[in-house]
From TrEMBL:
It catalyses: (S)-methylmalonyl-CoA + H(+) = propanoyl-CoA + CO2; (2R)-ethylmalonyl-CoA + H(+) = butanoyl-CoA + CO2; (2S)-ethylmalonyl-CoA + H(+) = butanoyl-CoA + CO2. Keywords: Cytoplasm, Lyase. This is Ethylmalonyl-CoA decarboxylase. It is found in: Cytoplasm, Cytosol. GO terms for biological process: fatty acid beta-oxidation. It comes from Paraburkholderia hospita.
Length: 276
């Protein structure tokens, strides 16, 4: 691909992921703003396909992953859809399905930049840190809030978080389960850049990708190959432990108690909104 190209997904109403290529950069956009860009099966599948396609484009310099709207990058896994998954086998299949999508991002042979236009929560935070870099709007925030649902990371993001922060700090972030504002997340190391006052996210991302666009694609791919090898060596053992921990916590009664409270709050909020 070269120049400006839009995917056939771009014009499809209700399509969960949109793609386009401009000046050697692939733009992948999660397109569920009415659901706060929650990650259901269809969205995870579309992300996996989009990044698998990118692996075959030798002209790309970088990929930018963003989301529609300015409220949410991704509000985590779509609990309304996943609520029926109750068995160990169901939980393991959910983990593997989400991990496959994030692995397609990790395996992309050029740098992937997550552009956070709003909140990245739970599985959405895991999606963000599966990328090589994270650039955020000033109002954006990120939260590993899985513990509020009495579960551990379920999309394979633990190894990424532990690599970014180290085991001790990562465990505290998971245990606190706070939503972290952009400035604090930058200091902590979860973000790589935050937009300046008055600067748009598009402008900030354009500045961030310049070093990658300014080098030949094969050189960028060589750099990413080294980085990917390092990342893979660190994450292999963690993945097995993370999967087992997720299955154990997902199927525990404490999780379903918290999940039911969460869904009840969503229904109440939706009902209140429909009356106004």
């Amino acid at each position: 691909m070269s120049g400006e190209v839009s995917s056939e997904r771009q014009d499809a109403a209700g399509t969960p992921v949109l793609t386009s290529v401009r000046s050697g950069v692939l733009y992948v956009t999660i397109n569920r703003p009415d659901k706060r860009n929650a990650l259901n099966r269809a969205t995870l599948d579309a992300l996996r396909e989009s990044f698998a396609d990118a692996a075959h484009d030798s002209a790309l310099h970088a990929v930018v992953l963003s989301a529609a709207g300015d409220r949410s990058f991704a509000a985590g896994g779509d609990l309304r859809e996943f609520d029926a998954l109750r068995s160990d086998a169901d939980a393991a299949a959910l983990f593997d399905h989400a991990a496959a999508a994030l692995d397609a991002i990790r395996a992309t042979p050029v740098p992937v930049i997550a552009a956070l236009s709003g909140t990245a929560l739970g599985g959405g935070a895991e999606l963000a840190i599966a990328c090589d870099y994270r650039v955020a709007a000033a109002h954006a925030c990120i939260g590993f809030v899985q513990a509020t649902l009495a579960i551990t990371t379920g999309f394979s993001g633990a190894a990424d978080l532990f690599a970014l922060l180290g085991p001790a700090r990562a465990m505290r972030v998971l245990a606190k389960a706070r939503v972290i504002e952009a400035s604090e997340a930058l200091t902590l190391g979860l973000l790589d850049d935050v937009c300046a006052q008055g600067q748009s996210l598009d402008e900030c991302v354009a500045q961030f990708v310049k070093p990658f666009v300014g080098r030949p694609p094969h050189v960028i791919r060589a750099m990413k190959q080294i980085a990917a090898a390092h990342r893979s060596a660190l994450s292999q053992a963690t993945r097995v432990a993370e999967r087992a921990a997720f299955v154990a916590t997902w199927t525990a009664p404490a999780h379903w108690e918290q999940a039911q409270k969460f869904l009840d709050r969503q229904r109440t909020s939706a009902a209140s909104g429909s009356k106004t």
